[in-house]
Specification:
The structure is a homodimer of 268-residue chains.
Chain A lengths: L4 H14 L12 H8 L3 H13 L3 E4 L3 E4 L6 E4 L7 E3 L18 E3 L3 E6 L2 H7 L6 E11 L2 E11 L1 H4 L15 H9 L3 E12 L2 H7 L8 E11 L4 E10 L3 E8 L14
Parallel strand pairs in A: 3-12
Antiparallel strand pairs in A: 1-2, 3-4, 5-7, 6-7, 7-8, 8-11, 9-10, 10-11
The first copy, chain A, binds a DNA duplex (21 and 21 nucleotides) through α3.
Chain lengths: 268, 268
DNA sequence: GGGTATTTGTCCGTATGTATT
DNA sequence: AAATACATACGGACAAATACC
């Protein structure tokens, strides 16, 4: 008798989901049917479903019903390799799509959106420059197979542009890569970098772009990469945001096998 | 007029919180007062507060009120260093405690809880052994200054014990460290490791131990570290769980400065 | 395109329970 | 013990989204 009714109902449904009686993608009974089944009011049923939604077990679609969530095949990014692109394991979930078996996954980035800003405190601290000094920011949105994958913003000190790296402030891709471009124009060579990995709730922009539920249930990784030159001076700060529901990371240290064995990652 | 009322109210309160009009730790007006202020029903006010709770902006305490959350000073763990202990930045929030200024933070681990199990699929895959084969698991809970920090479980193939590393199955700490112990007894030397970083919702055990809200709002990092010997054979799998609301990670690659500059990390 | 049935979303009012002060 | 404040639960009404005919 300890637990409130809505939690008991949620627990009962959870057991059915995790026990496999309700399969991923399957529709639950409607709120009205569950109301009669459990002898509770519709609002109590809704509280139970809200709890399951918060736990990421079900999702509700207005006008359609409540469904057991289909787990997404994660994108796995290796942080200790360069460049940082995701290794993709397993198959795309194409149960809803047509005949797409065997296709390659397509990585697509928008053209960089370039702005000149005053450095906010967080950027200034990691770039080791004064707060409020001028910086160049280059922002890109990245998709995999049309699914929003990450949002990335790189920051450079404005001094780089003044010293000759003027293509930094031109919109559009720098085809040879910005790091190589900086080496060629300014002689700046990256000798190391530090990633700082955090998780926070998504803001409004991110919620929209990644198509996340607006209740803040799904957080985002925010990875700050500070690149250092030979003199251990920061030469670039890259902040990348990834939704936690479809991204994982790998860090390799020392001598390790080439790739993660097996085709399937993800929890057992 | 597009947005429902409870979201407009939540938005209004959110602006007050992020604008600093409502300070961390400060109590919001009660549901009854907000009901009169916004001309909505108490249930609608509660919906707004539930949304803010899901976004991690406020917390409710029965019998007391609703409060703006106090951000925790994060524990920062460097994944590319060994051993993996958190670097601690900034001050402990001791506004509620007494005179504790200047004290050191204390790291405490419970004695290992040792079990012999059959390898579940996820463990077998990363240890590259057969599913269902015997493994030794050693589980520890770790605290910083009394605050639950992480739960760690290490898995070793049972063969290690049979070959002479019998202290693996004794409860209690192996003071010289298990890696050194395995090197001394079996000649197994770790030459590298791979960390695999995921985020998922906390289960019931974790929710209890870390004292997380039961609505699944706060997720947990799950870091799987696979250690490899000279022959690139996995010799240990360590799974560590950290709540995302108080943990961050650092990855260093190449030549980087000693420490993160400045005393304060965390969002601007 | 329009209309209707179905299903979830929002909002209200009320009553009672539980935790804290 | 009493007051306060949030938590649970009920029932009802209408809105909005979707699917189907």
């Amino acid at each position: 008798m300890a637990n409130p009714m809505y939690r008991q109902i949620a627990e009962h449904l959870r057991e059915q989901i995790e026990g496999g009686e309700l399969e991923p993608g399957q529709q639950l009974r409607t709120e009205i049917e569950l109301r009669e089944h459990y002898g509770a009011s519709r609002n109590t049923i809704r509280d139970a479903i809200k709890l399951l939604t918060a736990l990421g077990l079900v999702e509700t679609k207005p006008g359609q019903g409540t469904f057991v969530v289909r787990k997404m095949e994660p994108y796995v990014t290796t942080l200790t390799g360069s460049p940082k692109v995701p290794t993709l394991y397993g198959e795309v979930d194409d149960s809803a799509a047509g005949h797409t078996e065997g296709r390659e996954r397509l990585l697509y980035s928008t053209d960089p959106q370039v702005e000149i800003q005053k450095a906010p405190a967080s950027v200034a601290r990691l770039l080791e420059i004064d707060e409020g000094s001028q910086i160049v920011s280059r922002h890109q949105k990245r998709y995999i197979d049309g699914t929003p994958w990450s949002m990335q913003t790189s920051f450079y000190p404005m001094g780089f542009v003044l010293k000759g790296a003027d293509r930094l402030i031109q919109a559009g891709d720098i085809s040879i890569g910005t790091m190589r471009y900086l080496e060629q124009t300014l002689g700046l060579k990256q000798v190391g970098y530090r990633d700082w990995i955090t998780v926070r709730t998504a803001d409004a922009t991110e919620t929209t772009f990644f198509n996340l539920p607006l209740d803040g249930r799904v957080g985002v990784f925010e990875v700050f990469m500070t690149a250092y030159d030979r003199t251990k001076t920061p030469m670039r700060l890259t902040a990348t945001v990834y939704p936690t529901d479809r991204n994982q990371f790998i860090v390799n240290v020392g001598d390790v096998p080439e790739s993660v064995n097996g085709s399937e990652l993800g929890p057992a």
